[in-house]
Write a structure and sequence with these properties.
8 helices; binds magnesium ion; about 240 residues; binds adenosine-5'-triphosphate; Rossmann fold; six-stranded mixed sheet
Amino acid sequence: MQARGLTKRFGDRDALKGVSFEAAPGELVAVIGPNGAGKTTLLSILAGILTADGGDVVVDSGAVGWVPQQAALYRRLTVEENLLLFARLEKHPDPRASVEEMLELSGLGERRGEIVARLSGGNQQRINIAIGLLSRPSVLLLDEPSVGLDPRQRARLWEFVSGLAVRGTTVIFSTHDIQEAERYGRRMLVLADGEALFDGSAEELREAVRHDAADPAASDNDFETAFVTYLQHRGH
Ligand SMILES: Nc1ncnc2c1ncn2[C@@H]1O[C@H](COP(=O)(O)OP(=O)(O)OP(=O)(O)O)[C@@H](O)[C@H]1O
Ligand SMILES: [Mg+2]
């Protein structure tokens, strides 16, 4: 997937000011940056649910899966009913088969008959992701997927998502957890005020951040604080 010079304006606010980047098959890209940086706007445009004002998105082949931050689930329906509903909405040739596949893949098989409202936040998030995967996308976009998950559920989420990447799915996710971005993102895209400040490996970002840190020796211990300094030095 490739984004070239994406711009988006809401009223008099520039949410994206010409963002370009590329993600190869099987690559995990973390999009990080302060509130209002444009992360959700960028992911929504890549997902095709929001139109850019300028620039374009090129998807090599296959579908793009979208996992929004707020799961649009029908809380009174069961896990299986939710998946079936979305498979039908997306006009799958064989909705039941797609649902079986997703129950299997997401490990939700045993909970298929449970009412969504009674599931934990983590399991609801798994359904949210399963819906994003229904179209068997070659590119999966996740907006802050780990928010509200406990450490074990977080680990499970990343185990699952990393497995998809190993099998060739391009995964692009946003997060406010710098440590998580570093751990799971093979590449990091730093956005601030609609601009891409950095695009590179976690190690390269560490290097750049260390360079800027108030106390370079401390930057390894507290990467998050060092990252804030890095943003400050760039006027954010
Ligand atoms: N539908 C909208 N209407 C008006 N302004 C919007 C809309 N969506 C986003 N914006 C503005 O665009 C900018 C980027 O927002 P966006 O939601 O993409 O940021 P974000 O990086 O996802 O932030 P957060 O970390 O808080 O989720 C913000 O200034 C926001 O107020
Ligand atoms: Mg957002």
